[in-house]
Amino acid sequence: MRILLIFLLFCPVIDLNAEVVINELYYDPPGSDSGYEWLELYNSGDDLDLSGWSIQKGGSSFETMYVFPEVIILSGCYLLIAEENVPAADLIAPLAFQNGGSATDGVRIVAPDDNYSDTILYDSPNTNELPDDSGNIGTSFAPDVVSGHSLARISNGWDTDQSGDDFFDCEIPTPGAPNFFPVDLELTEFSMQDAGNGEYQVNTVISNLSTGDVDNLAAWLEIVVNSQPFVDFYLPGIPALSVITQTVVIGYLDEGYHVTEIYLNYQFDIELNNNYGETAALVGESPVIINEIMFHPLAEGNEWIELYNRSSCGYDVDNFIIIDEIGGIISFSGYIDSGSFLVICEDQGLFLAEYPEVLPEILIEALTWTPLNNTTETLFLSDSCGICLEEVSYEGSECSAGVSLERINPALFPSGDNFTACLNGATPGSMNSVYVEFIPTGSSLWIVPQPFSPRKGEHTVIGVALPELISRVTIRIFDLAGRHVRTITDQTLQAARFQYVWDGSDGRNRKLIPGIYLVVLEAVGQETESVYENVKTAVISP
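User: That's the sequence. What structure does it adopt?
Assistant: Structure tokens below.
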């Protein structure tokens, strides 16, 4: 609010207990100081007649440079005293303040009877022993600001008589208006997690790193879920050097990968690099998986990894990374559409020379690459929020040079049984050569596809569905003479549905001869102790 000035022809009786202070000082304008300096007063008390008050400046000592005419500064208002080139000044006065730079300088306002003063001392050392408002030699000093900055009171009208505590270096002066102390709000902590009832929530910790308070409803949070605006809401007041916590309920999330972005907004925040956060949650199995790995290329080729999106929606993978078992990172950015592939290569030119049929839109040269082991390796598909979407381990002996390691079925977990050497060298950007389609039949035991030919590198999937969450499960394979040739599993499983990939080999990893085999399921539910049995035939072709 601008001051209301009343120039009087008489002297009213006004309470002299009012608190009028120097609120902002502009002593070093860019270029020539002459004509552009100003002083702002603020009255936090009752209406006050400033007639006979004086402005003094201090260099070697304080000396009077201006005496106020008959003027009233109203309660809660500002008064701008300035030189002739300052627009919207309330009073014009020759000021010529000291610019600091080698010793303490000062400015003060003094009541006619010397019974009240307000002083600002700036720069140091106080070689000339300028006094503060106590009358003693000043020991607390505001900074010496650069040209074009002002000295502004941190809290409008609030005075501790300690210049070093009351004033700050103001980059954007506000003559005749409230000061805005620079505040740094920080999004200190943020996470998204299941609240325990299936609903997800975002938890945040917001810190006020500065010594100025942030008013209620002055700052706000903006929440964006999967690139869609979710909610904006104002924050309560945040006292200086304090923290607040805020929890936002996101609700139930569909199966898949979900990213939440958090924006902390405050008009006068001086540091924006700590106002953004990104967190994520994986509900169920990862929609994006590692589908094919070229870890042992030919001499003229290069390494690459193929991702596959097995979900019904596309994903921005800018925050995805692949980490090897010793911490090496493959970083990349891009987008993978629903039901599509994304090939991440070490060198795009070398890759296209070897695989010119791959579409450029699904090929990405990695931002950083770490060499893949040709022996034993574990790869983690993760995001920048620390979520591991998938873990894949392999043995280098599985593939010869120039042959990739392919996933047999993208719907199954990435166990060693679900990866094998490519039958055609490599299939980047297209369906794997060893792909086995998984089509549940609704029975408790199914085998798809069949017949299948292990001698041609083909596999089948043995699937089980049980009405129990935890069961002891045994799956064995017999020939028609009743001889036991292979045990697929014999363990306690915490799942109602699960699948195994079988390559048609016996217990000694020898390929079985063509014929009909019996797949026998035996399971006991842990909770109900119910027994489940089923037998299906599997046909191995030449």
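The longest strand covers residues 256-266.
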